[in-house]
Amino acid sequence: MTYNLSKVGKIYHCRFTIDGKRVQKSTSETNRHRAEEAAQRIFREAALWARKGRVIPTLRELVAQWISTHQNVASASHLKGMERFARLHLFDLADMPISCLTTEAVEAARSKLLTTHAAGAANHWTRQIRLVCNWAVRREVVPAIPFRIKMIKVQRRPRATLPVDLTAQWLAALDARASDAVRLAVRLMLGMGLRESETATARWEWIDTVRQTYTPGMTKGREAEPLPMPAWLIDYLRPYRKPSGLIVARTDGRQYARGFTRLPIGAANHAIGISHITPHRLRGTFATLLSENGAPVQSVQRTLRHKDVRTTIGYLEVDMHRVAIAQGRMADAWSLR
Q1: Quick one: fold of 56-155?
Q2: Which residues pair with 16 in a beta bridge?
Q3: For the whole model, what pTM was predicted?
């Protein structure tokens, strides 16, 4: 049992027969010497997995398997991102067996992405390809990820938080342009740091008015821990209170789709002349204000339900006003004013 190497366009392909089945795989190489090495590896692994009754999938096939397996497990946004990855961003890697994903080939694909996307998007792409390949390793499809690729260093930019002194004005602008459902959702995000998706699934029966807590029952991390509810939020919700059901619902009673608050929030931003406030930045505003008002980072982490404190730290923006006050005190101590 052996293989034949042939050229299709500029790329070498190897053909062989295993268990009576003809197989053709791309080596993704234009150099014959490297193509020979790749073909030998493809052939050996195909023969090994044939004896075990397995076939090494291409990257396209692997991503499709991942999506199918996680259809009822992963979040809708995660699935949508993986589907976009499979549809638009596999490049020349799509039909390569995952065991042939060399560092050179993966870096070349990422370079193509960088012609139209920023470095941050390229890092997200790198996480996606690592995710599916690590999944293949756990399933013993391949013994290890066959490539090594580092993240690109990205200049971190300050992210917007809703200014405290403009919050009342911003909420008034929002209320003038949004439905009751959106008004409720925004206050749930601002008052408890909920994600937009968590406001869409929020239910009245998860509120404990005696203890003044809310226990989200459908979360990204599958947690179910009670969160303190501020008195102002309980008072705001009281006129809308129902025994059970969705807190935020469409007029026909159905759940809102992803992104339902984005346009009203954008309109409120424009009305008062601020920018970059998004549903997720309301969560960042909540986290930053908790920290600025004395909550330890571990408490903020638990409130946001992050597994890693580094994720929480990434949400917190520096309060430069407090830095200015501290600088003034230092100047006084140094007798410089």
Answers
A1: DNA polymerase; domain 1 (1.10.150)
A2: 3, 23
A3: 0.67
